[in-house]
Amino acid sequence: MQMKKPRIVITMGDPTGVGPEVIARALADPVVRGCCHHLVVGDELAMARGIALAGTGFRIETAENVPREEPAEGVVMLCRVAALTADDLCYGRPTVASGDAVFRAICHAADLCLKGDADGMATAPINKEALNRAGHRYPGHTELLAELTGADRVVMMLAGARLRVALVTIHEALARVPALVTFERVLATIRITHRDVHRYFTRNPRIAVLALNPHCGEGGMFGDEESRIIAPAVQAARQEGIDATGPLSADTLFHFAAQGAYDAVVCMYHDQGLIPLKLLHFDDGVNVTLGLPIIRTSVDHGTAYDLAGTGKASAESMKAAIMMAAAMAGRRGGEDGAPCG
After folding, report:
1. Residue 333: per-residue pLDDT
2. Is 74 in the same domain as 199?
């Protein structure tokens, strides 16, 4: 029996950045197109410009839902949720209208997933300032999607073929991190990471949990969060049947994780996890939001205004995000996963 292709909705991101271009270039890859049925959500003028910049020769056909059939050769399927003007499409200069278009695209894609009309969503990068200027007060995709889907707690995971890192705290000043590393937050991050990595990536994942301080606090000389907070959270997770190990020292753990000793690493703060992840997966890393009732992946880079309009933006992360969403959807459905995963 032939496996049905997952239906993946792709949000265009900031139309004044590299989003439309990298989407067009990603969809030109036969491997990406072979993974899923696609629907881009955004603005037609911006997408047409991205197609021209990428030199793919695509033509646009519009649709409200992700098609269940293969589009004709050379066609990009698009759902229009905005009607931007040329004034809204100056590279590197987002407007209120373009910020609102970003919001509308994310909301529509999430709605398609929640209704079962799409199996997952992959998002291009956005400008948070433009989103807020348009009256939508969210720090970014993650918080907006948590509200749209009614998720109580979400976890940011960055993933590549060799390493997956999940974050206890995300975009926080380093001085605030110790107070935010609580027993409840560490345990919740371990639980969500275990549940979704088990569901979408590998059964019964082996999870490494990092220390906060150098050398695991060196017996309390450099801090006691390890003994007071992290070790008890790991023990509580283990009592629930989760294969969690820690706290482990971050300066050595990643060597072993990258060699396959662990399936995911729970990190206490942003740079602790993202520095090694981006060292290994700078071009093809994928941002995955765990804890949502829907599948959401994203590129692991920003709007890249310095590259917007130059035709030089890499589509590798966008390709990886679409393919990972498709593979996750296949595994959720009880399959072994899409062949491109």
Report:
1. 60
2. no
Q: Is 270 labeled as ligand-binding?
A: yes
Q: Is 4 annotated as a binding residue?
A: no
Q: Is 215 labelled a binding residue?
A: yes
Sheet holding 75-82, edge to edge: 59-62, 75-82, 37-43, 7-11, 120-123, 296-299, 286-290, 155-159, 164-167, 264-267, 207-210, 244-248
In this structure, the answer to whether residues 274 and 308 fall within a common structural domain is no
Same domain for 218 and 282? yes
- Distance separating alpha carbons of residues 198 and 186, to the nearest angstrom: 18
141 is known to lie in a ligand binding site:
yes
Q: How big is the chain, counted in residues? A: 341
> From CA 117, how far away is CA 97, in angstroms rounded?
27
Per the annotation, does 296 bind a ligand? yes
Q: Is this prediction's pTM over 0.70? A: yes
Report pLDDT digits (tens) over 232-251: 999 999 999 999 999 999 99
The residue from 267, 291, 315 where one domain ends is 291
List the chain residues with pLDDT less than 70.
1-3, 333-341
pLDDT digits over 276-320, tens only?
999 999 989 999 999 999 999 999 999 999 999 999 999 999 999
Query: Do 230 and 302 lie in a common domain?
Result: no
